[in-house]
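hey all, quick one before standup. I had two proteins in the batch that finished overnight and I want to keep them in one place so we stop losing track of which output belongs to which input. First protein below, input sequence then structure tokens straight from the run.
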Amino acid sequence: MALLRASLLLIGLCLLPLSSARADQAILIGGGYNINGSQGQIELNVSWIQDVLNKVNMPVVTFFTDGDDPAPDVHYLHTKVEGDEPSPVDQLAEQLEPVARLFDNQIANARRFKNHEIKSVIGGTEASSLSNALADLFEAAPDDPTLLVFNGHGKQSKTTPDKVTMELWDDTSMTAAELHSLMEKSNAASRFVFTQCYSGGFHRLAYKNPEQGLELSSNMRCGFTAESAYRLAEGCSASIDSDDYRDYTTFFFAALDGYDRQGEILGVETDTNSDGQVSMREAHFYTLEYAHSTDLSRSTSEDYLSAWQPWYLKWSSGRGSLPNNEYAKLYRTLADRHSIPLSDSPAKHIREKMNMYKDTAAQLHLRGIEIRHEIRAIQDELIYAAQRKWPSLSGPYTALFQSLVVSGEMIQVAQWVSEQPGYLSLVDLQNEDQTLSDSILDAERNLTQMQKLFEFRKLARLQNQLYLYAKPEEVRDYEKLVACEDSPLIFK
């Protein structure tokens, strides 16, 4: 059976365009853990990543949700487009919106389900089948460099970072330690990009012992993650409007491609060393500088610096002027963008802004609680009145409730709700609640920019400390990771 799986995967690879360079391969894994966790943004991210990789003629093996099963495996939110002919379902949803708002189901009323449209999917992501397929791929081409990309969801570990997971189809999962074991079957250097929540735990792929220690794995591995092993990542929206995407995928792969998701050329040169190609490290630094999101992203070499620092150096890590390196440059650039003075107690000004954004988010949150109480009061009053006229409304999923739908009487219910004195207030409050959520997200994004400033200062000093105090083998390992990260999509 393993031989058959390997043969099928190799046949799939042979049908893909071959690179004129080495026989690199990209393994792209995407989708949610079930239909409710498989958002439209993930599908669009995976499709776009495929396009970026295809531009450089890199063979891509794609695994997505349930593979070629025709059942729905993606959900998205329908938005009305001016001039488009609405479908019967969309027309009915618009008619029933007052009832949906009355019962707090306006988001569910806009949700639609479909089968994915990802091209050339070779298999699904259920954990056991994916594990077997990855083992076959690594064993079939053990000397070929691999780029491994995951775009989906993750779960935090309550113990060590190597226990963070990729949440996979059919509510299964794979830990960083389990993936580490699979990647041990490869002899070649590998890179990875993980964009899920708590993705930072996957930096343990780079080490010989995924649970602890700084010794690197014998086959070189490095990569980039949207977040640490302890923080949620931005993204995974059900929206299909890519104009608003600010996740790590959007910035990182735009930097590699030179074009944004709408096909517009980037207004910034991402090939910062002017060697004619954008390295993955350059894409990461572009993302650190320009991504106005809640992601505090990191690379494996940055993870190495944080894990390496001896306890006795932490006492002096915040003192003195910054050394002259790439993290100090990032710090100065971002500080200038956010009007942080560099010569007059910058840490004080950063903390003041952090507190301001925290206070803003807290005040918005309290207002949100008030609004939801007001919403609930209006809903309770309207529901009571509606159920007096239509008692069947009190028993969803019953025969009498269904009869309201079949007879078309539910449309009358919706019309009645829309004519009640409190309905317009309900709509206004629900819209304000959504606006508040957007404002809270904006405050959290601004707060992350301040956290980035502290992170850049720390990394600038850590890198300097490494060269001053580390053992020669520790410096060599750090530089190996940097060299690995500083490679283009096609590994040289």
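OK second protein, same deal, sequence then tokens:
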Amino acid sequence: MKPKHKSLLFNFLGFTLVFFLLRFVIVPLFMQQDMFVMFISAFLSVIVAPKFFVQKVDRKEQVFMKILFLKTPIAV
């Protein structure tokens, strides 16, 4: 699997996992409409979910992960 495809898949899985976790945590707090909860959880998961990207290191592509509260990216 190419590193670009891996990073795309990891981005999707990270967003999905954070989205569902936030959605089921926010629902008991706000007994509002479903669309309101989905928009809030989608917005927060875009901010909080880890970001994966590909960078060339020594003529080889490598996948890195960037988390909100860490300063430097982590190699995956």
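Flagging for whoever picks this up: The longest strand covers residues 51-57. Helices lie at 3-29, 34-48.
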